[in-house]
Amino acid sequence: MKKRIVVAVCIAALAPAGLASARTAPAAHAAATTNVSVSGKEFSLHLSRTSISRPGTVVFTFRNVGTVAHDFSIGGKTSKMIGPHKTTKLTVAFHKKGRFSYLCTVPGHAQAGMKGVFTVR
Asked: Considering Cα of 104, then 108, then 112, then 117, what sign does the dihedral take?
C-alpha cells in the first residue's frame, strides 16, 4: 500500500511540471529570425535576399570579399569595419514595413555603388 501511495505522489508531482514546460516552450513563442548573407567588394554589395515578408529580426552576415576595409550599415546600425576576407554579423530588428537603405559608410564607397535598398513587406 505504501508503494502505491509513493508512486501516486510522484506521478502527481511530476505531471504538472511536464505540462508547464510544454506550455512555455521557447520555440513555440520565439519570433522567426531571417539570415541574410552580404558580400561586399570594390564597389558593390550583394545580398542573398533583398526583402522579407513581414517585420522581424534579420541577422546580416557581412563578408568582405574585396581588397580594402568595408562595413555594412542598415536600419540605423553599422557593423564594425572589417578587412579583406573577414566576416562580421549585424543584427537588426525591423519593427515596421518599409524600404531601408543599406550602404558601406567608407567615404565615397556608397557613391561608387556600395548601396541598395532592403524591403520589409
From this structure: positive
Decide: pTM greater than 0.85. no
Q: In the sheet where 115-120 sits, what is the strand order?
A: 51-52, 115-120, 98-103, 73-74, 77-78
CATH architecture of 31-120: Sandwich (2.60)
Residue with cell 506550455: 23
- Helix and strand element counts for the chain (H, E): 2, 9
Identify the three-state secondary structure at position 83.
coil
Give the pLDDT band of residue 87 (cuts 50, 70, 90). very high
